[in-house]
Amino acid sequence: MKTAGKYTSVGGRVLTAVGLVVAAMAITQGTTALAASVSAGQTITTSNLGQGSSTEFQQAHGGKCDPNNDGWHFIINGLSAGDGTTLDATDLPSTISIKFSDGSVVSGAFLKLSGPTAHYLNNSDHQADNVYPTSASLTFPAVTDVTAYTNFVLSHIPCGFPGTTTTTTQPATTTTAAATTTTEAATTTTEAATTTTQAATTTTEAATTTTQAATTTTQAATTTTAAATTTSVESEAPVVTPAAPSTASQVASEAPVLTAPAGSSLPVTGSGDQSTLLIVATILFLGGVILLARSRRPQEG
After folding, report:
1. Comparing C-alpha atoms, which of 294, 290, 291, 277 is closest to residue 20?
2. Residue 194 pLDDT more than 80?
3. Angle (nearest 5°) at CA 250 between 245 and 254
4. Could you tell me which of 91, 23, 82 has the C-alpha nearest to residue 277?
5. Among 291, 300, 299, which residue's Cα sits nearest to residue 9?
6. Which residue has the higher pLDDT, 267 or 65?
7. How confident is the model over 92-149, as pLDDT tens digits?
8. Within 10 A of 42 (CB to CB), how many other CB atoms are there?
9. Rounded to an integer, what distance in angstroms lies between the CA atom of residue 295 and that of residue 217?
10. Would you tell me how many other CB atoms lie within 10 Å of the CB of residue 289?
11. What 3-state class would DSSP assign to 22?
12. C-alpha span between 92 and 95 (Å, rounded)
C-alpha cells in the first residue's frame, strides 16, 4: 500500500507540472509582439506585401481606398524615440522606395507625421493599371532619434486601381429654420352704459271713518252643563324606512408585471487553440492535485 501511495504522489506531481507548462504555452501564444528596435541608417521593409498575383493582391488590399490621400499610401506606426527626445520629420527619410510587379521602382514622398505614425504617398505611378506593389523599403537617416517601430505597411491603394470601390463620406448637413413670431393686434370692446330710470309710484288711500251705533244687550242667565268629553289622541308610531343596502365596489388589483431585461452576451476574444490548451492544462492540473491528495491520505494496513 505504501508503494501504491508513492506512485500516486509522483504521478500527481508530474500531472501538475505538465498542466502548468501547457498553461504557460497558451499564455505565451496570446502575447502581442513587441516593437522592433532600429538604429540610424537601418533599412526596413513592409510586412504586408509580397503577393504572387494580382488576384492575391486584390484579396489582401482591394477596396482600401482613401479619397483624402489618394494613391499608394504607406504608414510606419509605433515610432518611439530615446529618452528626452521628440520625434519630428528630420528623424525620418524624405522618401521611401516602392517596387512594383512589372519590375519598376519608384519613390513615395513623406506626407506627414501624425503622433507616432509617419505617412508616405505616391500619387503618380500605376494609379489605374493592374500593376501592384510587391515590396517597399525605408532607410532611416544617419542621425535619427527613432529607436523602435511597430509596423511598416501599405495602408491604402489608389481609388482608380482596378476593382477598387471609392467610399465617400458626405459631411453632415444642418438646417436651421428661422424662428417665426406672430403678434396679434389687441382687441378692445367697449359696451355702452345702460341706465334704467324707474318712475316713482305714489299711492294715496282715502281715509275711512266708521261710526258704530251703541248697542245694549240684556242676556238672561244661562246654565250650561257640558258633558265631559274625552279626547283620544292617537299617536302615530314613527315610520322607519330601512336604508338601501350599500354595494361595495370591488377594486381589482393587478399585480405589477415584471419584465426582465434580455440577457446580454459578452464578446468572446482569443483563439480557439489557446482555449483548448487552457482546458487541457486545467484538467491535467486538477488530476495532479487529486492524485497528490489521495497519496497523502492515511493508508489502511
Report:
1. 277
2. no
3. 180
4. 23
5. 291
6. 65
7. 999 999 999 999 999 999 999 999 999 999 999 999 999 999 999 999 999 999 999 9
8. 13
9. 154
10. 15
11. helix
12. 9
Question: Between helices 2-29 and 272-295, what is the axis angle to 10°?
Answer: 160
Phi, psi (degrees; rounded to nearest 5) at 92: -125, 155
pLDDT digits (tens, 9 = 90+) for 230-288: 334 343 434 444 444 443 344 344 444 444 445 444 444 444 556 778 888 899 989 88
Could you tell me the pLDDT band of residue 49, with boundaries at 50, 70 and 90? very high
Strands (E), the chain: 36-37, 43-45, 72-77, 80-81, 95-100, 105-114, 117-122, 133-139, 146-149, 151-156
232 contacts: CB under 8 Å, gap ≥ 6:
none
Is the model's pTM score more than 0.70?
Answer: no
Q: For the residues of 86-153, what is the DSSP string, one character each?
A: ---GGGS-SEEEEEETTS-EEEEEEEEEETTEEEEEE-SSSSSSS--EEEEEEE--SS--EEEESEEE
Identify whether the C-beta of residue 114 lies closer than 8 Å to the C-beta of residue 135: no
Q: Which amino acid is at 251?
A: V
- If pLDDT is split at 50, 70 and 90, which confidence band does 82 have? confident
